[in-house]
Amino acid sequence: MNKPSSFLILEKEGYTGVGECSVIPGLSIDPMDSYDLKLKDLCRLLNEGHDPDSIDLDGYPSIAFGLETALLDLAAKGSKCLFPSAFTDGNAGIPINGLVWMGDKAFMQKQIREKIEAGYHCIKLKIGANDFDTELEILAAIRQQFSSNDIEIRLDANGAFSPQEALGKLNRLSVFSIHSIEQPIRQHQYDAMADICARSPIPIVLDEELIGVKSVDIDALLQKIKPAYIILKPSLLGGFKPSEEWIRLAKKYHIGWWITSALEANIGLNAIAQWTATLGSVLPQGLGTGQLYHNNIPSPLEIENAKLYYRNENNWDLNPILS
Description:
Strand content: 15-25%
Helix content: 25-40%
Strand order of the largest sheet: 4-5-6-7-8-9-10
CATH architecture of the largest domain: Alpha-Beta Barrel
Structural class: alpha/beta
Number of domains: 2
Distance between the termini: 24 Å
Order of helices and strands: EEHHEEHEHEHEHEHEHHEHEEH
CATH class of the largest domain: Alpha Beta
Shape: globular
């Protein structure tokens, strides 16, 4: 797959900090028609000595994330060790889910077998692209072989259901002991989503619903919709500080949460993984996307037995972006 990313490179006193500005066209709120101009303006202001905190990046959450992580890397003298922990020491791995992409029945079943053989106990299936009865057949086949004690199933509908059909479909899905389902209907249908969260037999997760929400509106949104979980993608939310505000308020309302990458390359994924390791969550996280790219930046990140590790014996190779 191909995905656009820009890398922000900061240099000071002989050290180099790198941050990734990663967007998902059609999902990120960053306006793509002015994106390159905003990056150039940011670089100009930084070169002129402006305080990074004074630079307005409102409406450009991925650039805010890239700047935040580049500054953290610069403060760490370019070591890429942004949040020291047992994870960065190589002594602890982060449990992750196995992501199964949408496709025809045979393609999805092949992916499921591969994830289970690789030791995953939590798999996440994208649904909504196939005929619904076919998707039910795929879930039934999993449950014929594996109980919910063996394999946890998370679903992601990406807003594929209409508000009128959502509860009926959720009831049919619930017989397969589903852990949770992300975004059953499209975002910004607040009354409908609140009703679905209150009545669904499957715990509802908000994902796209969080994108573009101002910090002053987070509390009201969570109070109104009352989801079971929220998913945090720092690249889409403006960085770690806004993400931590979501976590703070989620805890206030007893809402669960986990962290997911937004298909970043290893620069962004590394920052997100290191931050995640400091949060103390025991749930499987959505941080296994680094394997998707054949030309990803070589790094110490490595997946083994359904956990993401930081292998210090493996080196970073930043030549593709620094040369």
